[in-house]
């Protein structure tokens, strides 16, 4: 991984950028649109939104503006969205996909995910995602916030194995067992909230390593993600932070630094536990 546009090849042959922009919390309209356009101009190619975020229209606007400004083609970008919990039936997931696609102003998605593993519902939604995949409406399909047992349950009946599992992942929550399981299944792990919503930015060990490397703590954490083989999508709407977060391809963490950072794990979450959520 030497460049912002470097990719990992998913198990179905689709190339997914290692690094992208997360858009949770970006307000629909100018804020989301400007963040996406700015990121495209500064070399980002991957963008992650969701029906729940309520900003797919703004994200779509930013995509169009970014492509116009750079002369890039739609095929140069990798766009992800997610189906929300209330739409996890077969027909309702298909309808939710069409709604997301219309808001984004696109005719296909690169990746579509089940947002949360709602028991008794996610298998019907997965059949819908398989249908969309077979029809070529989406290039890759996957899940978000799935533990090992959720994945095992899904795999019992799935025709198509998920390509991605997007989960909370950072130095205080390394999810080692899940990561190993995903690797054994050829499922790519992707990190949401890689900076733990800022809670890690004053962690002494990370401050020490960042100071030694003349990098920010955020850059050190994001580099740790990549060197662990985890796709990462930090979120920001500020231009300087969007640029700064992506400046992680000109240095490497040593094996010792990697191990010390991983040893910070406390199995501590900022989001809900996928075994205990109520929405």
Automatic annotation (TrEMBL):
Q: Which Pfam families match?
A: Aldo_ket_red
Record's keyword annotation contains Oxidoreductase = yes
Kindly indicate whether the keyword Oxidoreductase belongs to this entry. Answer: yes
Q: Which Gene3D superfamilies match?
A: NADP-dependent oxidoreductase domain
Alphabetically list the UniProt keywords.
NADP, Oxidoreductase
InterPro entries hit by this protein: AKR, AKR5G, Aldo/ket_reductase_CS, NAD(P)_OxRdtase_dom_sf, NADP_OxRdtase_dom
**UniProt feature coiled coil, ranges:** none
Q: Where is the NADP-dependent oxidoreductase domain?
A: 27-266
Name the family. Answer: Belongs to the aldo/keto reductase family.
Protein name (record): Aldo/keto reductase
Native species: Planococcus chinensis
Tell me the classification of the organism that encodes this protein: Bacteria, Bacillati, Bacillota, Bacilli, Bacillales
